[in-house]
Amino acid sequence: MSRGLPHAEDFGFDLRSLIAKRITPLERARLQKTIQAEARKDERVEDATVTLTATATSVTIHITLTLATGKFPLVLSVDSVSTAVIFPQAA
């Protein structure tokens, strides 16, 4: 399985690898920083905040991207069956 995008192999992080993995608070902090760094690879992203929640069967990541045009919130939800990207309305 490819880690990145077909046209940009150095982009991306396979969130499915986190399903059913025991994640300690230290590991959670490291993963949040890793996901934040991945988001910042896009030149349109000025900043990113990331909160990761993991259970035995799923991973949910709340991300707020800061772009030149404003803040852009999104939620990534991954389980063993599906992946969903949710675009909640900005507050």
SSE arrangement:
Elements: H1 25-40, E1 45-54, E2 58-67, E3 70-79, E4 83-86
Antiparallel strand pairs: 1-2, 2-3, 3-4
Structure description:
- With 91 residues, this protein is an alpha+beta fold.
- It has one domain.
- It is built from one helix and four strands; from the N terminus they run αββββ.
- A four-stranded antiparallel beta sheet has the order 1-2-3-4, with helices on one face.
- The protein is globular and about 35 Å long.
Which structural category do the helix and sheet elements fall into? alpha+beta
Total beta strand runs: 4
Helical coverage, percent range: 10-25%
Spans of 5+ residues with little confidence (pLDDT < 50)? 1-5
The geometry reads as globular
Please give a quick description of this structure:
The protein is of the alpha+beta class. The protein contains 1 helix and 4 strands, in the order H-E-E-E-E. The protein is globular.
